[in-house]
Amino acid sequence: MPNKESAKKRIRQDARKRARNRWRKGVIKDGIKTFLDAITAKDVPAAEEAFKAVQKQLDRISTTSTMHKNKAARSKSRLSRRLKALKTGA
């Protein structure tokens, strides 16, 4: 247990930041899962809509310290490649 007030405050701040980061990552994972379900079902309109939503979430979360901007760009690139493959295959 911390003895100093600053150490106690740091623990409280870290707990809040961890909860916020976990929530943000969960939002991203849920969006990606929705997108991949649409890809699996070969539903192009639903996949496009889900991709747009995931792209917006990735852009927004990559501006925080939760996710690096290059990781977000890499994820968007991989998802868009899957969407493009679905469109050309359909």
Written description of the protein model:
Helices cover 84% and strands 0% of the residues. The protein is mostly helical and 90 residues long. It has one domain: Ribosomal protein S20 (Methane Monooxygenase Hydroxylase, Chain G, domain 1, Up-down Bundle), CATH 1.20.58. It is elongated. The mean pLDDT is 96.
Return the structural class: mainly alpha
CATH topology: Methane Monooxygenase Hydroxylase, Chain G, domain 1
Full CATH superfamily name: Ribosomal protein S20
Number of structural domains: 1
Strand content: under 5%
* Approximate shape: elongated
Mean pLDDT: 96
- For the record, the CATH architecture stands as Up-down Bundle
CATH class: Mainly Alpha
> What's the N-to-C terminus distance?
59 Å
* Number of E-state strands: 0
Low-confidence stretches: none
- Number of H/I helices: 3
Radius of gyration: 18 Å
The description of the largest β-sheet is:
none
Entry summary:
By secondary structure, this protein is an all-alpha fold. Helices cover 84% and strands 0% of the residues.
Topology summary:
Layout: H1 5-40, H2 44-62, H3 69-89
Helix pairs in contact: 1-2, 2-3
